[in-house]
Amino acid sequence: MTTTLTPGAADALLFDLGRVVIDFDLARTLKAWAVELGSDPSAMMTALARNDTFHRYETGHVTDAEFFAAVREALRLELSDDQLREGWNAIFIGEMPGIAPLLERAARHLPLYALSNTNDAHIAHFSEHFAELLKPFRELFLSSRIGMRKPNAAAYDHVVRAIGVRPERIVFFDDLAENIAAARVRGLQAVHVRSSADVAQALDQLGL
């Protein structure tokens, strides 16, 4: 389902961070950990997903040390917490091509916010290394800090209340279809982002 926006249809813009603002690749982390990649790097993390350690880490219920212990066990690694943290943060590639000027352009007209599923180790890293890129945002709603994550309805409701704008007047940008669908259920307008061109098109439609 494609979202068609109209000029003046938004009072706030809400962005996911990963693969919308900041690019990342799990294969970089697994390579840093010297894990055999195989044909599907993401499959290496399924053991963590099954026992919900990763989700609990992203909602602030598991510490860095507890998460790294789970990684160590699931992937049979003999690395220190510092080595695991360094590899974990190697996931970041850089800013999504073309997104910085779009954020600056949008921020001249509307307040920008972010809603991202993330964790304390990544927050510490991107807050330092991407500080300039994140300057246009008025507030970041980060899952490990707010205790809830997408696509759970509570995460969207929390952000809508905090922003203080009716959900139908918020445009949400995310790269995952399940997060887009959940946002629409909660009343937000939502744009599925495959590249920064999708963000640019949405801004054009909004007349920004």
UniProtKB/TrEMBL annotation:
| Superkingdom of this protein's organism | Bacteria
Species classification? Bacteria, Pseudomonadati, Pseudomonadota, Alphaproteobacteria, Hyphomicrobiales
Q: Which UniProt keywords apply?
A: Hydrolase
What is the protein name for this chain? HAD-superfamily hydrolase subfamily IA, variant 1
Q: Does the keyword Aminoacyl-tRNA synthetase apply?
A: no
Q: Which Pfam families does this entry report, sorted A to Z?
A: Hydrolase (PF00702)
Look up keyword Transmembrane helix and say if it applies. no
Q: GO terms for molecular function, please?
A: hydrolase activity
PANTHER family assigned to the protein according to its UniProt record, in alphabetical order: ALPHA-D-GLUCOSE 1-PHOSPHATE PHOSPHATASE, FLAVIN MONONUCLEOTIDE HYDROLASE 1, CHLOROPLATIC
